[in-house]
């Protein structure tokens, strides 16, 4: 099979595209012939060597993708052959073939287009667990999203709006601002403008996947409010003073989606809950940006540039 891989951690130049041996399929696994591979910020952290990655030689990055089951492990029922499936937490996914434990597959409903399904897997399930497991906001709550124009940001904001919550956010460019304003946000600020003092202490919840903005996020929540910290696309947060939080009854919650995907049933239930927003027309996303896997370096470069505003996929031809 062809794969995108690296031998040493580093910048984009470490990525290589070439032939590697096909994966071995264990008893409870299926072999998925990949059509679309999802690129995520965590893949950049992993390529740099500052995030957990499955030990493998050479390293094949990636944990998300969509494809068809073409081979079964000995203990897997024959009925699964030919199924269209998605996965969001299986290593070695930047490749044409991926061995996937049966417990980690998510069946994709026929009415959901392949491109849409591949685009909403990890980012959509992340938005879903941030909204429904971590923040648990009530109707009419005021919430704020850092990096609101990103893939997770756009799905999360539309989900919250559909749930009756008032959503605000900040973004880096006018183009991104216009994009998210069409999605039901109450107000979107430009990071380069002076906006912070106007809304300091106003929010019940701030969702922060940018990381280095954590201090600002803490100042934006009201007393008894919470920051949901879920990533560091813009850089690591500074250390925080827990006693200062205590004085104002402010909280910080964190979470990793994978700790919430504990069984096949759990994955399928969460995916169905997510897909309902799309089939009800409550969430609409723009088309993903698609690169061929052989041009994977370009896909990584775009994500890392901060210029993207939606899902980036790599296609296996
Ligand atoms: N906890 C979990 O389980 C989990 C799961 C999936 C993803 N995540 C995290 O969620 C975050 C968002 O992921 P995503 O897939 O939505 O990524 P994305 O589409 O690239 O969005 C990230 C957004 O962050 C903003 N940003 C600010 N500073 C940036 C910088 N220096 N470089 C790049 N972007 C910067 C950008 O928005 P503006 O231009 O609008 O500021 C960008 O659109 C990431 O931190 C990721 O690690 C966490």
UniProtKB/TrEMBL annotation:
Sorted alphabetically, the Gene Ontology cellular component annotations on this record are: cytosol
- Matches recorded under Gene3D superfamilies: Medium-chain alcohol dehydrogenases, catalytic domain (3.90.180.10), NAD(P)-binding Rossmann-like Domain (3.40.50.720)
In which organism is this protein found?
Answer: Liquorilactobacillus aquaticus DSM 21051
What name does UniProt use for this protein? Answer: Oxidoreductase
Recorded GO molecular functions are: mRNA 3'-UTR AU-rich region binding; NADPH binding; quinone reductase (NADPH) activity
Q: Which InterPro entries match?
A: ADH-like_C (IPR013149), ADH-like_N (IPR013154), ER (IPR020843), GroES-like_sf (IPR011032), NAD(P)-bd_dom_sf (IPR036291)
- Please list which residues make up the signal peptide: none
> Could you tell me the keywords of this UniProt record?
NADP, Oxidoreductase
Respond yes or no to whether keyword S-adenosyl-L-methionine is given for this record: no
Question: For the Enoyl reductase (ER) domain, which residue ranges apply?
Answer: 10-314
What SUPFAM superfamilies does the record point to?
A: GroES-like (SSF50129), NAD(P)-binding Rossmann-fold domains (SSF51735)
């Amino acid at each position: 099979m062809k794969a995108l891989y690296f031998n040493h951690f580093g910048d984009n130049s470490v990525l290589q595209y070439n032939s590697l041996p096909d994966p071995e399929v264990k008893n409870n696994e299926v072999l998925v012939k990949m059509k679309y591979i999802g690129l995520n910020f965590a893949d950049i952290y992993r390529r740099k060597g500052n995030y957990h990655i499955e030990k493998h030689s050479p390293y094949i990055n990636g944990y998300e993708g969509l494809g068809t089951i073409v081979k079964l492990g000995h203990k897997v029922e024959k009925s699964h052959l030919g199924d269209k499936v998605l996965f969001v937490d299986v290593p070695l996914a930047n490749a044409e073939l991926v061995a996937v434990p049966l417990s980690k597959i998510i069946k994709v409903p026929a009415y959901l287009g392949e491109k849409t399904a591949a685009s909403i897997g990890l980012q959509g399930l992340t938005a879903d667990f941030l909204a429904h497991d971590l923040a648990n906001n009530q109707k009419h709550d005021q919430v704020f999203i850092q990096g609101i124009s990103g893939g997770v940001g756009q799905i999360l904001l539309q989900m919250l709006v559909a749930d009756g919550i008032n959503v605000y956010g900040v973004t880096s460019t006018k183009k991104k601002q216009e994009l998210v304003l069409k999605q039901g946000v109450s107000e979107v600020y430009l990071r380069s403008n002076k906006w912070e003092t106007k809304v300091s202490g106003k929010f019940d919840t701030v969702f922060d996947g940018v990381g280095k903005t954590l201090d600002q996020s803490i100042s934006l929540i009201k007393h008894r409010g919470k920051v949901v910290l879920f990533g560091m696309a813009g850089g690591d947060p500074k250390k925080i003073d827990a006693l200062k939080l205590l004085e104002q009854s402010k909280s910080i919650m964190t979470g990793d989606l994978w700790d919430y995907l504990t069984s096949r049933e759990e994955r399928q239930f969460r995916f169905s809950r997510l897909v309902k927003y799309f089939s009800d027309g409550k969430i609409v996303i723009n088309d993903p940006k698609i690169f061929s896997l052989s041009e994977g370096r370009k896909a990584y470069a775009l994500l890392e540039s901060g210029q993207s505003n939606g899902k980036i996929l790599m296609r296996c031809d």
